Amino acid sequence: MSAVSIEPAQLPALALQMGLSLDEAQLGKLLQYLALIQKWNKVYNLTALREPAEMFTHHLLDSLAAVPPLQKHLQGRSGRLLDVGSGAGLPGVVFAICCPGLEVSCVDTVGKKAAFVQQAAAELGLRNLRGVHARVESLTQTFDVVSSRAFASLADFTAWSKQALAADGVWLAMKGKNPVEEVAALPPTVQVFHVEQLKVPGLDAERCIVWMRASAG
Ligand SMILES: C[S@@+](CC[C@H](N)C(=O)[O-])C[C@H]1O[C@@H](n2cnc3c(N)ncnc32)[C@H](O)[C@@H]1O
Q1: Is 90 marked as binding a ligand?
Q2: Which of 28-67 are b and which e, b meaning 16 or more Cβ less than 10 Å from the residue's Cβ?
Q3: What integer pLDDT is reported at residue 4 of this predicted model?
Q4: ipTM
């Protein structure tokens, strides 16, 4: 994966280029969130990336690329989203900032990561965001969208989170290259209805969303 030089100061222009309509407050919160990850990374061991420039492209812009497809799916509806294995809150915190009508829960088995998301929610004033310390398999609430990024194979992701998916809910899995073999390994109870290519500014790498829903099989 290679990256061209790109800087946080370019965020307003990059957001427009990505088809995002964000106000000053949202742009500010995205940069504040990045600063929080950088500040707490050493203490909480949130991400293996250490370089601020890399965090900007590989984490923030990469997560932002999934926002227009998510907004298109929601079509202005409110709803509940669960981000599974969210780590530092990627992409869940970015979704919460960009989609204020969405109630976002970021679940992780590591307590300090869930605590970091709770702290980010407080510091950024995000009342639609919460960090949950749990294994996704143990959740009983249901969600309209269940997302993941850098989490697990499609088969494991859907198997572990299926009880958390609302009856008409969808899975949103952020992946690199179109994961043809992972799709082939899915059980008949999971239907892939769209593989959507993403373009991340400054990232010369393939990215996609695999959209799935539960089917009778
Ligand atoms: C590689 S990290 C990805 C973090 C983040 N989504 C990102 O894109 O940077 C995977 C995360 O999944 C969490 N995890 C693993 N198994 C889990 C489970 N069964 N339920 C919830 N979280 C889990 C790990 O603790 C880890 O933080």
Answers
A1: yes
A2: ebbeebbebbbebbeebebbebeeeeebbbbbbbbbbbbb
A3: 55
A4: 0.99
